[in-house]
Task: structure prediction
Amino acid sequence: MSEKQNFIFNQKCAVDLHLHLDGSISVKSARELAKIEGVVLPESDLELEKMLSVDEGCRDLNEYLTKFSLPGSLMQKKKSLERCAYNLCRELLDDGFIYAEIRFAPQKHLQKGLTQKQAVESVLRGVKKSGLKANLILCAMREGFDNSKENLETVRLVKEFSGRGVCALDLAGAEALFPNENYRYVFERARALGVACTIHSGEALGADSVETAVEFGAVRIGHGVRSAESEKTMQRLCQKRIPLEICPTSNLNTSVFESYAEIPLKKFLSAGVIVTVNSDNIAVSRTDARKEMQHLIDEQNLTASEVKMLVLNSVEAAFLPEEEKQELRKTIEAEFAL
Result:
């Protein structure tokens, strides 16, 4: 394949490892879920899209997170959770995705009487029916109140459903308001149960937050872009082979960077840090992992070989058995050979 610049990433082999279910509800899906939940939505699709996504004036992560209120109201019943997951997976299939790890916080879906376990089972049904190869990452949450009971239940469910569609634990929420140190107990329990972890870190806070995530046992880092502020942190990520799940447009939305050109992708690659490219929230950021890759291609002059390497990085970093990774690698190799 030619090493020309301005490569167009049109291969049907996209992978997304950092994808929030509640932040990725399309307008069409939202209307379907609203009927199930009895939620009244605006008649205008444009107005609804604005309610589901941020605009250019978004100032920070805390403001970004306000866009999850409406989606949460659409995902409080078994049927709506199942349908939401099914719709997202079908949309990914149609867009040429071959694997995704979809994350959500089961404790956020209990307003109408569901248990966390029922929420997980509902989402798993939707994923299975869709035909997309995908797994779930369950999120413990950073909150301004004591939700330790709920967080520990989430950890337990990761263990219970391990190998049955759930692949890892995450910690999500407002990192700057509620830093990793407050949630040591979550990862002590995860370590005791042998649960794999990725932790949102190095987005709203700096490299020290990533250091804490590594200390807590994270084998991947959600975002992690501010690791670039510390040579020591980058060296540690390299030594431990801990991949970053970068989400470019989301970082622009939350004012971590002002442009795609500022994202330290090349710095990470030069240092030997493993990088994967992901969407974060398809609806909130009006993007997907394929578009994210194209932004980096266009703004950082990535070649076809570099793009292929980044996609293969996602396979290598996936919470999958080696034999399943090998099948994905074959698909990617075949697509890039065309």
About this structure: Strands lie at 14-20, 97-104, 134-141, 166-172, 198-201, 220-223, 244-246, 275-277. The chain has a mean pLDDT of 96.
